[in-house]
Amino acid sequence: MQEGGDSEKLLSLFRDVVLPLADAYTATKSAFRWSAEDSSLLVKSDRRIPTDSFSRVYLVGAGKAGVPMARAVVDTLQEDSRLWSRFAGGTVNVYRDQASATIPGVKLFAADHPNPNQASVDGAHAAMELLSSTSAGDLVIAVISGGGSSLLTLPGEGICLDDFRAANRVLVTGGATIQEINTVRKHLSRVKGGRLRLAAPEAIFVTLVLSDVIGDDLSSIASGPTVPDPTTCADAIQVLERHGLWERLPEACQSYLLRGDPGEAERAGLWRNRLASRTHNVIVASNAVVLRTLYRLLSSPEHSTLAARLHIEESPVLGPVEEAVAHHYARAAGLSDTAGTGTLMLCGGEPTVSVPPGAQGTGGRMLHYALLAATKIAGRDWTVLASGTDGIDGNSPAAGAVVDGGTLQLAYEHDLHPDRFLESFDSYRFFRELEERTGKAFLNVTGPTGTNVNDIMLWLL
User: What is the pTM of this model?
Assistant: First the structure.
């Protein structure tokens, strides 16, 4: 059996190396910089915005990384007194536990995730009102990150918050991909699908994005509040019917989708004719970037003691979590047979879970993945860590968990049966009770990290 030391190694690797690589402040600050040489703002390395091209600066945004991203923007603006004097204020919807932060000139709304609360709506109203005061010659900076779909919510006319929340619960537990989920969300909303950007049609608009969507599809990240929407109400209905979710949707949401959206063609023309040239969307960090950087870092001599060999899975994790675990187990078995022990396999992505109606368990994708992995690797000298970079897995207070080849046997010895917890999607309670009965650490509890670049899975063979 794998000794506890390997579990600690993977926990330390995630907390001390992976999370700093995904740090939202650092990523945002490096992508949005002040150039004193020519008095301009540099966005990444290929966009330069001279200060004489705008008069006022506004900040809006939403996401689990809202606080560090907003702070990075404000810190950049404060580097020049003339630039800072043009700052007209901002509003950002952040995860409720981070709303006590203080950022000069920025109002933070204590929104909630994975289901929106009233502050999610209040903050969206505030952002739209702020943007309505912009005019030609103004600059809007938006900071968008994972969780933004819930944290920034403005239901369509006739849809109350409770109905929107009910629809959201149906979507996130129904087995649909994040792209499919956000297709539906966009067409139940007055702020998603580019509508946030449309609220300031005369302004220059720069969006800094911390991607939590595999493939970095801008129209899916936080449901694309600042990019054109390529989907329609008919697409949203098809998603719901394809996954058998239409009948579970509240009647108000069904009616809203069935009415369709007569403004789709007009918005498309506005994007094409007026907005495209003055709209800049920039990815500041993503899952793929973190994985590649982690691979390079672990390849350096100072980290060579962790594993004799490294392997990175180039294909991101998508689809059902059960298939993801099976695929990774097969890959790990092949690597173990050919390369022997001492291999660390790096994986990333975002699997899906299909929670049946009525299931009342506590957990999320990564806790479910870890428990499934424990059943697959039983009896092997392997250790597996699965965690979300946002520090919050589903409706649990943990980021994920770490397991090894002895976890399953240990659970049986303490009268815990994994199958029961898997069936009820109650993986968090499984690991919590196993910790209480054995005194051994399984849960990876980091607290909210202020960032989100999807999930990381590490297999030490």
Answer: 0.79
